[in-house]
Design brief:
Length: 359
């Protein structure tokens, strides 16, 4: 039965991938192999609860390594690939785009090539069940003016950062491997995620952790950049839904219909911390907000039209922004061991150089 074969997850030790892997085992969805390079963005501690689970296999390796991929596909008859692995931080892509082109473009190419060879070896039933699912971002669509309609699946691509351009390139490769070679691919383009295990260089965890330490809360520019926030568990359920029911060759936009200006997000977090940490000497935490020089080429607004996945596949997010944010803040308050483990020397150096108060 091809449904008992393992799935391959790439980048499963990062923020969204790890949430996906943990949820996968929580619902008993079957064997899974996790291929991850363990860059700075990965934290093996996130998956320590899976050690010893016979259905879980971790492979430390690079998706750009074609030999490694070939060996992996020879050892396992994967029924699906869920491709998360990427360099994902826009600020880092501005300072050093090379790693983004390497992993996001060449890595996706290597994975598609290996997946296609693998697909050719499968029998009829296995081929019918096989999927290559590519996890992508709404940033490929560029930026919106306040009056523009939200991004839908036919919005033209207009990536503005090196990160977004590299993800756009990978999306096009996935599309081509379907149209040219018949590889059964699906794709999701999702808005900004937040939730547990989020690396603290990103807005929401950065603000929570800085506020707890009484450090400045650096807000880019005027703080009026609008993002459409989705709780990470809802993104993971959308990916499972597309894997199960999505039409081959299709793209589904995923979002929570939670458009918020960055400054509003930070103020909401401060209010939650005022409530949840009443003993804090930094209350009200909003006094820590500092406006810093805007990011070059900063997109003003992202918003997702998710009617296709909602109407066609019946997926709906479970968390509102308010409930999801409360869960997230509580998680960061309760998981100090995880937080201490990511506050390593390398990370602190990065934060000090790039997030110092530049106003
Ligand atoms: P992340 O940076 O937290 O994790 C990326 C993971 O990929 C890490 O574990 C890292 O070690 C691994 N990795 C990096 N390069 C690799 C390589 N060459 N080979 C193997 N593994 C490698 O990223 P994330 O936020 O979890 O994002 C996961 C995916 O979802 C990405 O493709 C990203 O573009 C997409 N996405 C993210 C968001 C978001 O808000 N974070 C929104 C939409 C889409």
């Amino acid at each position: 039965d091809p449904h008992n074969a393992p799935i391959l997850v790439t980048g499963g030790a990062g923020f969204i991938g790890a949430n996906f892997v943990l949820d996968w085992f929580a619902i008993g969805a079957g064997p899974l192999v996790n291929l991850d390079k363990l860059t700075y963005a990965a934290n093996p501690l996130t998956l320590s609860s899976l050690e010893g689970n016979p259905d879980y296999t971790f492979v430390h390796g690079d998706i750009c390594d074609g030999e490694l991929l070939r060996g992996l596909f020879q050892r396992h008859r994967f029924r699906a690939i869920v491709h998360f692995a990427a360099e994902s931080h826009v600020d880092r892509s501005i300072l050093g785009p090379e790693a983004f082109l390497k992993t996001n473009i060449d890595g996706t190419f290597q994975l598609l090539k290996a997946a296609r060879e693998h697909y050719d070896t499968l029998d009829g039933a296995e081929r019918a069940a096989f999927r290559f699912h590519h996890v992508s971002t709404d940033e490929v669509y560029g930026t919106l003016e306040p009056q523009d309609p939200a991004f839908h699946e036919n919005t033209p691509y207009a990536p503005n950062s090196p990160y977004a351009a590299s993800k756009a390139a990978s999306d096009h490769l996935v599309r081509a491997w379907h149209h040219t070679y018949g590889l059964p691919t699906t794709m999701t383009n999702c808005s900004n995620n937040y939730g547990p295990y989020h690396f603290p260089e990103k807005l929401i965890p950065l603000m929570i952790l800085n506020a707890l330490d009484g450090k400045p809360l650096p807000v880019y520019g005027d703080g009026q950049q609008v993002r459409d926030w989705l709780y990470v568990k809802d993104h993971c359920s959308a990916i499972r839904t597309v894997l199960e029911k999505g039409r081959v060759g299709e793209t589904y936009n995923v979002g929570g219909c939670n458009q918020r200006a960055n400054l509003d997000v930070v103020n909401t977090l401060c209010a939650l911390l005022d409530e949840l940490v009443p003993e804090s000497k930094y209350r009200p935490h909003s006094q820590l907000i500092r406006f810093v020089q805007d990011r070059p080429g900063h997109d003003r607004r992202y918003a997702i039209d998710a009617t296709k996945i909602e109407g066609e596949l019946g997926w709906h997010p479970q968390e509102s922004f308010e409930t999801g944010l409360r869960k997230t803040v509580s998680w960061y308050l309760e998981n100090t061991e995880w937080i201490d483990s990511v506050k390593s020397g390398e990370y602190l150096k990065w934060i000090d150089t790039n997030y110092s108060d530049r106003a």
